[in-house]
Amino acid sequence: MNRSTDLYVDGKRRILVADDEIVNREMLENILCDEYDVLLAEDGEKAYDLIRQNRNTLSLILLDLMMPKLNGLDLLSRLKEDSDLKGIPVIVLTSDQDSEVESLVRGAADFIPKPYPQPDVIRARISRSIELAEDRQIISATERDELTGLYSYEYFSRYVEQFDKYHPNSEMDALCLDVNHFHIVNERFGMAKGDEILRRIADCLMTVFSESDSVICRKNADTFLVYCSHRDDYSSITDKVSEVCSDMPTSVKLRIGVYAYCDKKLDIRARFDRAKIAADLIRNNYMVYVSTFDETLMENELFAEQLVDEFSKALAEKQFKVFFQPKFNIAGDKPVLSSAEALVRWFHPTLGMISPGKFIPLFEDDGLIAQLDEYIWRCAAETIADWKRRLGISVPVSVNLSRAEMYDPALVNTFEKITSDFGITSKDIYLEITESAYVRDSDQIVDRVKELRNHGFFIEMDDFGSGYSSLNMISELPIDALKLDMMFIRNAFDKQNDTRMISIVIDIADYLGVPVIAEGVETEEQYLALKKLGCTIIQGYYFSKPVPAEEFEKFLVEKDS
Ligand code: C2E
Ligand code: CA
Ligand code: CA
Known about the structure:
Layout: E1 13-18, H1 22-32, E2 36-41, H2 44-53, E3 58-64, H3 72-81, E4 90-94, H4 97-105, E5 110-113, H5 119-142, H6 153-166, E6 172-179, H7 182-189, H8 191-208, E7 214-220, E8 223-229, H9 235-244, E9 254-259, H10 268-281, E10 290-292, H11 295-316, E11 320-329, E12 336-348, E13 352-354, H12 356-366, H13 369-391, E14 397-401, H14 411-422, E15 429-434, H15 435-439, H16 442-454, E16 458-464, H17 471-474, E17 481-484, H18 486-494, H19 500-512, E18 516-518, H20 524-533, E19 537-539, E20 547-548, H21 549-560
Parallel strand pairs: 1-2, 1-3, 3-4, 4-5, 9-10, 12-14, 14-15, 15-16, 16-17, 17-18, 18-19
Antiparallel strand pairs: 6-8, 6-9, 7-8, 11-12, 11-19, 11-20, 12-13
Helix pairs in contact: 7-8, 8-9, 13-14
The protein binds ligand C2E and calcium ion (CA) (2 copies).
């Protein structure tokens, strides 16, 4: 059992005084009893018994060398051979100078000569020995990571500080290394395989860095940190790690964030935070495994933090506004307004208008998106109801859903409540769900989409073509419209006017019996080409940018006339 590093009994540390002379025991007890909880033993055997009984609470032993039954030096040797007891510091009490050396050799922490010095000197020696022993224990308890044998983070940080002190002019890099999708390894193949992979990575890193100034630790789970002299290229490490794990049931890819030429004025944590920011940037990238930190990354990170911090206040102060972008049906001779998409904008008091592309992904990561989306859905519903009531016109408005919301069992209830609160119906609100939401855990998502459709909601699959759904899956998807990813339009018209991909998607939509919506349509040329290809609905700057509700009313009035 490990001795705890905080040894207090009723608020005091416990000390054993082992001396056969009663005068000495009483004197020491008197000097120490205010500050310590003092146990007394009059011979070596008794002392040994008490030590074993109190091995987890004893902070120090004061040991007379000349005692009956078991003498002090033999007792000392016995303690030092016992792994449970050897950590307890022993101060030897002796009048014989030769024995002082002998007892230090056998592992005593210190000695106090007889006749005894001033009480203050005794107290000072005792407290110093306890302190030293406790410090040493902290270090040895946390020095190594048990699984990999690498340093623990605490020890690593201290080591790095020491290293800098002795090598102030070395150019050093801070590296943060993470295994891509490690949780999946554990989930699918079990912890034992996961542990084996981590051990191999650790061994591999030790080999790779064996010839340079370097310190390595495992920070937690699958995150490793390396502090090493600067190198220009770390890309071979990922390959080496994949190689040593090649017989594992899954391929192991290490992504590496590099903060090169560390600014030594930054504390250790800040340096590795930078490396981590760089590593996180390539989390879902399957082509790039090394990423280097630069100052713009830091700015982005701070900007992101600010947005997340200010979210609640912004929501309470209604800084988020919903804009509407029209969708036109172009099947007939003249385009006819068919619906609108609700798109959020953040009007920030100091930063001005912020586009959703900047904050939606952050809020999706932080779990704030559900609050924001529900707010937006309610705003959209309120506007729909207002148009109906005031203008007598009803145009469906589609709102965007984030992937995480698709796991919410209360989602249907939320929409039912919104429609009933504002006196509108499920026919008034369309739901845009991005294609990539369908790709993972598709069963659960598909069930939720079916549930929404059963309640009368119209489902548009957003960004179609960007999520790589298999054709197999598409035929079973419960959807009411396919919304072409904007990239199709860009690629088709930017390059060699090759619209074949668009035709294929339109064919797929025909097969599914649903209309195709093209978004991001900016020019007449695009509009005409899409019309010719058989695309039914168009959204884009060609007709209008997203506009505030009041401005959108012109489209409603126009449609009505
Ligand atoms: P999205 O759903 O794919 O929305 C379409 C985006 O394309 C909108 O950008 C829209 O303003 C923009 N767009 C429309 N026509 C054109 C065009 O002709 N040319 C160009 N270059 N862009 C056009 P926006 O408003 O910046 O939204 C970006 C993304 O943010 C949206 O992409 C959507 O995924 C997300 N988003 C917006 N509002 C919400 C929301 O309320 N909730 C959630 N979860 N996501 C939202
Ligand atoms: Ca959308
Ligand atoms: Ca889209």
